[in-house]
Amino acid sequence: MLALLLGAGIASAQEQLTEAKVLLQSSRVAGFRYYEGRKLWPSMQLKDNLTLVREADNTYDANAVRVEWQGHKLGYVPRAENTALARFMDHGQHMEARITALSKDKRRGRWIEFDVYLSH
């Protein structure tokens, strides 16, 4: 019986290791007010998944990484924070992103904070 329990524990630990994620960075969505974010704001929730899309042909930033929520463009990873992500993505690494804060400030407007993970 003990051997079965230990075996189940090892299998569970192996599953967790194969699903491990490494936190690469935390950022705010840049350009949020220029895209679809304002209209979608009421529907977004903490922990929602975001999609990161590499835009290597972007005219303004060769390291551009677009941020989307359910297929809608919210903005970009800030230029000062996108170089490492762009390189990882250019080398085929899979990234995952998740909303960590939906903030509203009278002076600064609304913004979204998100974490980016390198997944295995």
Automatic annotation (TrEMBL):
<dbReference type="GO" id="GO:0016818">
    <property type="term" value="F:hydrolase activity, acting on acid anhydrides, in phosphorus-containing anhydrides"/>
</dbReference>
<protein>
    <recommendedName>
        <fullName>HIRAN domain-containing protein</fullName>
    </recommendedName>
</protein>
<feature type="domain" description="HIRAN">
    <location>
        <begin position="22"/>
        <end position="120"/>
    </location>
</feature>
<dbReference type="Pfam" id="PF08797">
    <property type="entry name" value="HIRAN"/>
</dbReference>
<keyword id="KW-0378">Hydrolase</keyword>
<dbReference type="GO" id="GO:0008270">
    <property type="term" value="F:zinc ion binding"/>
</dbReference>
<keyword id="KW-0479">Metal-binding</keyword>
<dbReference type="GO" id="GO:0003676">
    <property type="term" value="F:nucleic acid binding"/>
</dbReference>
<dbReference type="InterPro" id="IPR014905">
    <property type="entry name" value="HIRAN"/>
</dbReference>
